[in-house]
């Protein structure tokens, strides 16, 4: 029987529930247990596919094509496992299932109610994950903050699962301890309040992870213990870390794993962080920088820069840099400035490599195309992801093949030279606004051409990568592009779709229709990111 660990957050959002959940999982793995994790998001959206990246962060995609919250990406990276549709749930999805069952008369004509039918459906989902994953521990991260209306039904499910299975369920509260400047002292009251709010939902936390910029001292530990009804040993200091990958190591030192196992009457089967600890050590030591620019648009939010929309891209760059013993220096470059001021392009010379990541819609597109042209002409390593690959193709069609009107039907629906276009079967669906059925989502195979950057990176003929896009390189233009020197380095064998384009006489110029960033792992960088950073280092050392 799997044990269940719920992780809820108190005080405010953004305190690292996802990393805490992933870290608890990592610690239990190092003690010899099989772990899986599920994120529960309190949105009416059925999946994350329709959520705005600036508001919600990156949309992560699994092999089976589920569009989910970025935390699922953290679980994959920390636990080194591939997850599925079983590992993500939204309020919308629960309601959709319950309403569909009601329509199918599966409740035998009785009244269907929010409580208990909605929490019961949530529990069913958790138990299905336990069964399918055969995990010893299932971690359940509850999105949002305790005390808000939005996630009450998930807390209700947690309470009911504990009632059903008192020895098999544990609650972790991740809380935040502010040190206000004007007081200069760490305050525990918000955490006390958060614990009270959990109590109101019928839940007593077993463990409190006290997130703070400073370590927790004894008086504050005691205070939290007394007021939150938790043993002092279960109030665990979760200090800000320089790198997220350090967090499991730090929490293990605070005995988190031992405390959890103890509560279930279990003991460690082993105790081995393996190469993970070496990586953490390496991350703290690397000093020689490598400067990578990301030309995008989803990071400005009012006066703040938010990197969450590109989180997997950022992590993939870091993994690759650490592999090469370099310190990643990642800089945000807003695509739009290259549209108004072409001279601004000169700044691209300061970078060892540039990534143009995925995106939707027209904003910033022409700026990205100008940037790509500059990188191509000035031999600066370029790596285009999804939209980045489409724009590299458009740039090449316009400026090398002379097809001045080349564009994508995403930007100009009646475009004269649709070098990037939707596949025929999807056009009618789009006309009817059936956007849901028109994305190519999840893992697809790709055959690589020998003697290409891609083949040298992967060192194998067939690869599988994850997709999330609607538009494709239009096969009608393939002969023209190839004759002019754009190499079709990877093609999907089933549908004959171009997945990778690259240039021969360039230090690194590769565009991929898929999202390689979803499969990079800290100890196993994604091959193309690894080679891209390798080329950036070579260029810098020249
Ligand atoms: N907007 C493009 C498409 O739908 C690219 C999507 C992406 O970059 N993920 O095909």
Notable traits:
nine-stranded mixed sheet; seven-stranded parallel sheet; 37% helix; 23 strands; Rossmann fold; globular; 19 helices; alpha/beta; binds glutamine; 542 residues
Ends distance: 58 Å
Q: What is the total domain count? A: 2
Order the strands across the largest sheet as they lie in space.
Answer: 13-10-14-15-23-22-21-18-19
Number of strands: 23
CATH architecture of the largest domain: 3-Layer(aba) Sandwich
| Regions with little confidence, pLDDT below 50 for 5+ residues | none
Structure class: alpha/beta
Shape: globular
Q: Enter the CATH topology name of the largest domain.
A: Rossmann fold
The total of helices stands at 19
CATH H level, superfamily name of the largest domain: P-loop containing nucleotide triphosphate hydrolases
Strand content: 15-25%
Question: Which molecules are bound besides the chains?
Answer: glutamine
CATH class of the largest domain: Alpha Beta
């Amino acid at each position: 029987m799997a044990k269940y660990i719920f992780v809820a957050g108190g005080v405010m959002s953004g305190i690292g529930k996802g990393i805490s959940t992933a870290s608890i999982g990592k610690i239990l793995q190092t003690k010899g247990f099989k772990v899986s994790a599920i994120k529960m998001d309190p949105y009416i959206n059925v999946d994350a596919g329709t959520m705005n990246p600036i508001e919600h962060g990156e949309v992560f995609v699994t092999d089976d094509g589920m569009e989910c919250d970025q935390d699922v990406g953290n679980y994959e990276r920390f636990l080194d496992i591939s997850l599925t549709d079983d590992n993500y749930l939204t309020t919308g999805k629960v309601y959709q299932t319950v309403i569909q069952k009601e329509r199918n008369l599966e409740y035998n004509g009785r009244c269907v109610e929010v409580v208990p039918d909605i929490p019961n459906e949530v529990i069913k989902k958790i138990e299905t994950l336990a069964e399918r994953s055969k995990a010893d521990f299932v971690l359940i991260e509850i999105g949002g903050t305790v005390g808000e209306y939005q996630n009450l039904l998930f807390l209700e499910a947690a309470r009911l699962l504990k009632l059903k299975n008192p020895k098999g369920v544990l609650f972790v509260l991740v809380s935040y301890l502010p040190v206000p400047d004007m007081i200069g002292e760490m305050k525990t009251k918000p955490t006390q309040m958060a614990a009270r709010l959990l109590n109101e939902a019928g839940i007593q936390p077993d463990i409190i992870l006290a997130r703070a910029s400073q370590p927790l001292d004894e008086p504050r530990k005691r205070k939290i213990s007394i007021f939150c009804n938790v043993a002092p040993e279960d109030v665990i200091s979760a200090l800000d870390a320089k790198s997220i990958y350090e967090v499991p190591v730090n929490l293990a030192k605070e005995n988190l794993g031992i405390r959890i196992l103890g509560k279930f009457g279990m003991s460690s089967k082993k105790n081995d962080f393996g190469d993970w600890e070496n990586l953490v050590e390496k991350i703290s030591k690397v000093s020689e920088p490598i400067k990578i620019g990301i030309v995008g648009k989803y990071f400005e939010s009012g006066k703040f820069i938010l990197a969450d929309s590109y989180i997997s891209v950022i992590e993939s760059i870091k993994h690759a840099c650490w592999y090469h013993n370099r310190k990643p220096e990642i800089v945000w470059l807003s695509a739009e400035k290259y549209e108004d001021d072409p001279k601004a392009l000169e700044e691209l010379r300061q970078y060892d490599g540039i990534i143009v990541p995925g995106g939707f819609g027209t904003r910033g597109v022409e700026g990205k195309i100008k940037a790509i042209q500059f990188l191509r002409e000035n031999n600066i390593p370029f790596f285009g992801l999804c939209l980045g690959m489409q724009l590299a193709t458009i740039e090449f069609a316009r400026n090398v093949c002379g097809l001045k009107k080349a564009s994508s039907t995403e930007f100009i629906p009646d475009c004269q030279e649709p070098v990037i276009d939707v596949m025929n079967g999807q056009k009618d669906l789009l006309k009817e606004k059936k956007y849901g059925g028109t994305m190519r989502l999840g893992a697809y195979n790709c055959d690589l051409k020998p003697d290409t950057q891609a083949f040298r990176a992967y060192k194998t003929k067939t690869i599988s990568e994850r997709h999330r896009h609607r538009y494709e390189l239009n096969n009608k233009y393939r002969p023209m592009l190839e004759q002019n020197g754009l190499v079709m380095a990877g093609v999907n064998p089933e549908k004959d779709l171009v997945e990778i384009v690259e240039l021969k006489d360039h230090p690194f110029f590769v565009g991929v229709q898929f999202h390689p960033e979803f499969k990079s792992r800290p100890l196993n960088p994604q091959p193309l990111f690894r080679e891209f950073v390798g080329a950036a280092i070579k260029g810098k050392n020249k």
